[in-house]
Amino acid sequence: MHATILNDVRENIISGTWPPGYRIPFEAELAKHYGCSRMTVNKALTQLTRAGFLVRSRKAGTYVKAPQSLSAALEITNIRQEVEASGRRYGYRLLQHIHRTATREDHDRLDDDNPALVHAITCLHEADDRPFCYELRLINPDAVPSIDPNAFQEEPPGAWLLRMVPWSSAEHQIVASAADDTTAKALDIAPGTACLEIQRKTMNEKGRVTWTKMTYPGDKHRLIASFSPGSS
User: Is the residue at 79 inside a domain?
Assistant: First the structure.
């Protein structure tokens, strides 16, 4: 019965039947519905709370928690997978793709003085039709096969690169930042809102492949890394 309650409640949350902020039935109501003790119900709800599905309050009751996404801090992840792993529907919009002359700032970001031209891309990733991640990206055409001008209309540049371009090393920087006006507008948050910013460079034998900055609202994303004593 514990497993039945756990699976039923989780399915109601993942399917959207019980959306974020929804107050689920009280323990006594669930115990009556399933014909079991409140202790059994409590055990299942406690497990779901620890797993991040629910938020419990002695006075207010138990509510469905707004989902947070998990991103591996030491891996190159697919944002679509991050969204779908949290039980939400993924969406993507290309905002701008320009093939232009590289600036001094572009060279600094890529740590490379060689590319005369860069692909500068701005896009938005969504979860359940809401802004999820605002992405700025530079691609070095010297290190990447010819890019079709329409390549990123339907497929995000990160997913395309993972599929098409081998990489041998990467560097991550994780930064706490305040949303500027452009980022705030894209993410539909107030300017100055705390954000989590992931800056990444990837390289292969041809040189610097890409630089990207992915910005998430700070209260809706967290990073996770697994390691052991003595690991590099």
Answer: yes
Q: Which of 23, 74, 6 is nearest to 225 (CA)?
A: 74
What is the span of the domain harbouring residue 31?
A: 2-64
Note whether 183 and 151 are within 8 A (CB). Answer: no
Q: Are strands 221-224 and 69-72 parallel, antiparallel or unpaired?
A: parallel
State the amino acid at position 117 in one-letter form: L
pTM of the predicted model over 0.70: no
Q: How many domains does the chain have?
A: 2
Q: Which residue has the tokens 């039923």?
A: 8
- How far apart are alpha carbons 130 and 65 in whole angstroms? 16
pLDDT tens by residue, the chain, 232 residues: 989 999 999 888 877 788 878 899 999 999 999 999 999 999 999 998 888 789 888 778 899 886 555 565 556 678 898 888 888 899 999 999 999 999 999 999 998 888 899 999 999 999 999 999 999 999 999 888 778 878 899 999 999 988 888 777 888 888 899 999 999 999 999 999 999 999 999 988 778 899 999 999 987 777 776 666 655 4
